[in-house]
Amino acid sequence: MKKSKLFSAIITFIFLAANIFLMFLPMTNVLGFEFSIVNGIIGAFLLGFAFIHSQNGILKPKIIERDLLFQFIFFVIISLVVSILSTLTMQVCPLDDGIYFYLIFSIPSYIVGVSLAALAVLIVERKRYFVFVLLFLATLFSFADEIFFNPQIYFFNPLTGYFPGTIYDEAIKITEKIVYYRIVNLVYFIAIAFAAYRLKNSGGKAKTVFLLIVFFVAAGFGYLKPDLGFATSKAKLTKELGEKIVTDHFVVFCDRRIAPEKREVISKACEFYFSKISAILDDKPTEKIIAFVFYDDAQKKNLFGSKVADVAKPWLNQIFIGQDDFHSTLKHEMAHVFSADFGWSIFKVAKYFNPAMIEGFAMAIENDYDNLDIDYVAAFAKKNGYAFPVTELFSGFDFFGRASSISYVYSGAFIKFLLENYGSEKLKKIYGSLEFEKVYGEKLSSLSYEFEKRLDAVDVLGMKNKAQLYFGRLPIHKKICARTAALQTEKGWSLYARGYFSDAYKTFKRTYVYSGSYSSLIGTVYSLKEMKRYAGALKKLDGEIDKFDSSAYYFSLLLNYADLLALNGKIVKAETKYEELLKIAPSIYYTNLASLRLFLLNEYPLKLKEYLQGSDFDKYNILKNTLSVKNLYYTIPVLINLSKRLRENYKIFIRKLSNIKFNSSPSSVNAAFVLSEYALANGDLQLSKKFSAAAVNNNRMPEIAQALIENKEMINWISNH
């Protein structure tokens, strides 16, 4: 009896120590998704050990049940007390979402752990702990075949519940599917524990039959997971998408809702980028690449696991993109597939899964960040204090210790430096080995020094604000209550989209109190605007905008601040703020928006307020009418976005723009470029080629020359094939 109590005390102490340790790790230091997942795994393992120990003694069954129940309750109390204290002291996040995560992810995992231990006790008389560990690990990593063989990054697992994969969105919510899966888990594993307990004194035949039933039920469920919505097989994905296009080097599966002309353009763009990357690397895959093209973010989230990120699986020769992303991400994801030929391990990626090498390689091949040459982006990052030593970037997983934008750009610029100075053969060798001195004859520190000198030679004068726009963001583990804030903000935007502006306002307001996030602040402002509470929106933003003056979000807030001044009749102040934004010019996007508003303010003062208050339809008509008066290049990107949202017929839309004359101003060059992309996406090769030529011929900005030239090359290539 004393030994049993001592063992229980040791198990409880280990669990308490583990929970305290989680308090000091990013993401697990608050009661939420990550904490619940990790806590559930630890608790399941320790409770399994506690159960097996209880079966080794001479205690009576009722005492065993009582002790195990007390242990279970202690675990729940310890988890909640430690995590709540950590949450209230570390970040002061709301507890309700965290408690839901704990109930759905942690507690069912505890039960799974006990059930696996009961199964181990039934299977063998000796080495029960060893068998339990094997069963536990087999259950924990039962998702491995899905991640490796299936076209998905998410997985459902008895010990984790649900995990969105290595690349996932900030907002993770408990869906009906997750709840249903956990219920199925509980029924299955409670049945195992109950039956195992009842069969412990039965003969070998009964145990054998039971174990066969357990195995075949688990195998059958695994086989049916795609049909039940808990996995995505290749057969399910190709059936869901519906359309198949076969080219020389690709098999492209597109959602059938994508227009036929766009499907053709995407398939030909695949071949264009294939030829480009083959030339750069002097190498190409021997098998056809499989590309999956999703209709929208919702479909990609449901079938693949991430609505935001486009992804490649090099070991499967597969890429996954949205239909509107082929201009911006197709080349990058294709580069990942090319790297498989010289990758490491069965996953065919950079050695030790080094993220800086994996993503840096793809960025170097793509050489494009928001249509800018990555050398320019890395140079203005360095000269404005956002960069860090390359030696740190390639050390372990330091890649994730900073905002993803700087990690991607800086690693990409460094790999591009290696490619251009030492050639593709050495780059392919370093990708699979990470042995810089052996491959290049120099230490990483020496190569880093040469790279820094290269960046110093790039002229990036006056790009301070652009650097702030791209790099003034925090990585997720440094955000306050990141998961809870993202989930509540998503809820707020859902209410906003359905017209429940008062409820959306309350949600955003509550979220901003503890998170201080840009999304919740701008949601608060937008909700007040929709309720015509312009004075309140202005007051709110006036009191908060300075908190973001060094962040990437300052420019958006400045634009909205100027809009609110105009809506409140403070026209002179509004004009000053628009001119301020135009002067600091963080990007062509903000230059266009500020220019548009200043034009309306000066030429059609009454139209500005009408434009700011209007629906998409109202805005579209106002801009179309102004475009008929002058060639306002800065209105064209806005018109294209509005036209897409309103689902206007392309041929009707393009009628007024087909004969527009362009010049060398940045807004004009950008207008020609986006028109070229839009025409290409709609299969209008003639106009796309015309607009592209105008962009290239009028451009005077070397930092965007690469993007403009490659766009022109792609259009010509598609026209000739």
List keywords for this structure.
721 residues, single chain, 7 strands, five-stranded mixed sheet, mainly alpha
Overview of the molecule:
By secondary structure, the protein is mainly alpha-helical. 67% of the residues lie in helices and 4% in strands. The chain has 34 helices and seven strands. Strands 3-4-5-7-6 form a five-stranded mixed beta sheet. A two-stranded antiparallel ribbon has the order 1-2. Strand 6 and strand 7 (318-322) form a beta hairpin. The longest helix is centred in the first third of the chain and has 30 residues, at 61-90. The radius of gyration is 29 Å and the shape is globular.
Strand order of the largest sheet: 3-4-5-7-6
Cα(first) to Cα(last) distance is 81 Å
Backbone structural class: mainly alpha
Q: Give a count of the beta strands, DSSP E runs of length 2 or more.
A: 7
Averaged pLDDT? 90
Based on CA atoms alone, the radius of gyration comes out at 29 Å
Helicity, as a percent range: 55-70%
Uncertain runs: none
* Mass-distribution shape: globular
**How much strand?**
under 5%
If helices are DSSP runs of H or I spanning 4 or more residues, what is the number of helices? 34
Characterize the biggest β-sheet.
5 strands, mixed
